[in-house]
Structures are given as C-alpha cells and as structure tokens.
Amino acid sequence: MTSIYNDSIRIPPLQSNTASDGNLPTLNLNFLTEADIALWDGKQYMAFKQLEGLHVIEVKGTYQTDWHFDLLLPDCFWLFFQFTGHSKRDALSHTALSAGEYRGFYSIRDTHNIQIKAGKTWMVLLGVKINDTATFTSEWPQLVKPATIDQPYFSSINIGYRIRQIFEKIQQNTATPYSLRSNIHYHLCQLIEVYHQDLKDKARSLHKEDIVIYNEAIDYIVEHYMDEDINKNTIAEKLQVSSRKLYRVFEGKHTTIHSAIQTIRLYKGREMLRETDMSVDGIAFSLIFRQPIIFTSNMCSALAIHHPKKGSSTVKRKRKRKTRVCLQKTGRENNATVVLFYQASR
Fold first, then answer.
1. Could you tell me which residue ranges the HTH araC/xylS-type domain spans (predicted)?
2. pTM for this predicted structure
3. What are the beta bridge partners of residue 70?
C-alpha cells in the first residue's frame, strides 16, 4: 500500500524479498536521526527531514527492481545529487541523471515523480521553499524558472571537487536543536552558488572558440603542472568542455595534452636547474618524473642538444654555451602554440 510520509512524499512499497532484521541503518548524513527514517527494509532506506523551509531527502541501498516515489512539496527549488545509480524525474528524458551528476529543478507543480533504476543507488535531494522567485533569481539569474514542466532547462553537471568538499561539511553536522537549520541553509546556499557558476561556465563553453579553450588549458597547466593527477580529464572538467573536444583542440595544434604538460614541466625544470641548488634527482621527482634519467633524456630531446660538426666555425674558438627554454603562448588565431626551444649564444 502506498503511504504518504509527513504530507511531503508519497512512498509505494518496495519490491524486495529481504526482511529487515530490526537493526536500523547507518544514515550517511549524520544529522538525520531514527525519527527521520521514512522507509527501511534491510537493504534500502529513505530518510526525510524538514527544517523550517528546508527539506532533506536521502535514498540509499540496492534495489532489486525499478522503484519510485513522489515529491508533494510545491514551490521549492531542489538540488538533486545522484552519487550512485541512475534516476529520472517525471519520465522526461532531459531530466535523467547518472552516477556522479547533479541538477537543479523547481517543483512547479504539486507532484513530481522520482524514478530510480534497479541496482545500487545513493541520492540526496536538498530543497528550499521559494516564496519569491524574483528575489531568488536576482541573486542567481541562471536559475530563472521555466514556463512549463516539459521545457528542458538546467543542465546536469558532474559532481566535482567543490561539491564534494561542501558535502563533507554537511555530513559533519549533527542533529543540534538550534543551529542545524542555519548550518544546512548556509551550505545549501554554497551549493546553489557552485551550481549557478557551473551553469554559467557550461553555457560559456558551448560558445568557446578553439583558441580560447587552448589558451585556457595552457593557463591551467602552467598553474597546476605540479599536480600528479593532472590529465586530459581533469583539465576538461575544469574548463567545462568534453575530453574529446579538448583532445581535438590540441590535435589541431599538432600536439597533445600530455606533451604540453611535459613541455611545461621541462621548462620549470630548466628554471629550477638555473635558479636553485636542487639536484637533478630532486628536480625530477618534484616534477613527477619518477626516474631522473627520463627527465634528463626528455630535457635533452626537447632542447635538441647536439654536437657541432668538425671544422665548423662553432668549434674554432672556445666559448660559453648558454641554454634557454622559452614558453610561448600567443593569442593569434592560427598561431597559439607552446614552443620549447634551445638557443646557443656566445
């Protein structure tokens, strides 16, 4: 039998052969308590908490079949985080979420159906009552309310580092009687701010020219070349472009993202050789070269070091040789490139 919990969510029975052993689940959000558990059958749980205009829903478990529930909370703005599993809202394809994605939406009608695919699921919905959308959107203009339920709006965004950081802080909250509502509201505003910026970045990325993407990627590499996990995917996520798009941009410049990262590391290595007392081994390890010989080999190769032929004017008299590595990034439409070159001078 379908039941209505706290006049806020309509919950059908679970299709499960597992009987609860009587032990309550360990809720992922620490401020949720036993009193907030709306459903529990031994493998899946749903928890719901209201905090003076704020709503928190957590659904987690392994579902043997597809399942759904209904939101009965109109006039709210929601952030829907799909950490694990797959879901859809109101049977509309443009509302689908996969693992590691999140999306915002308004409850612009009395009932919204949330459909969960069978398998492992962990999702969190955070909602806030909106009495005046004009005031709300004056602070976050990207969140203008759509005219109809069928209108595609508010792109799904990958759950990135900033979102996970805020969620870690949310999870640390406990069920304090006075400050909990203020703390959750503060963190929800942080999440809305991140989502608003993510939407702006995504809209901007759709109109970026290749040269802009390329230059922003180079800027990011220069700033984060010491990061061990820097790669095509991390750069693409930061620039809000697809990995495939980023690959094609670098391919158009006759280079690769890996080569650009290595080039900039070699440039920094050259600076460190000239300006510090660090050993070659120390520099190599600091620049994520696990074997110093690889760093040395790449440096020589990139600098195109070679011995002059006998009889040439370069060996008729002794002179000091100086090497210089130069990173060049231009904004000219067809000539934005990274150049690492060797120059010999008297």
1. 215-296
2. 0.62
3. 10, 113
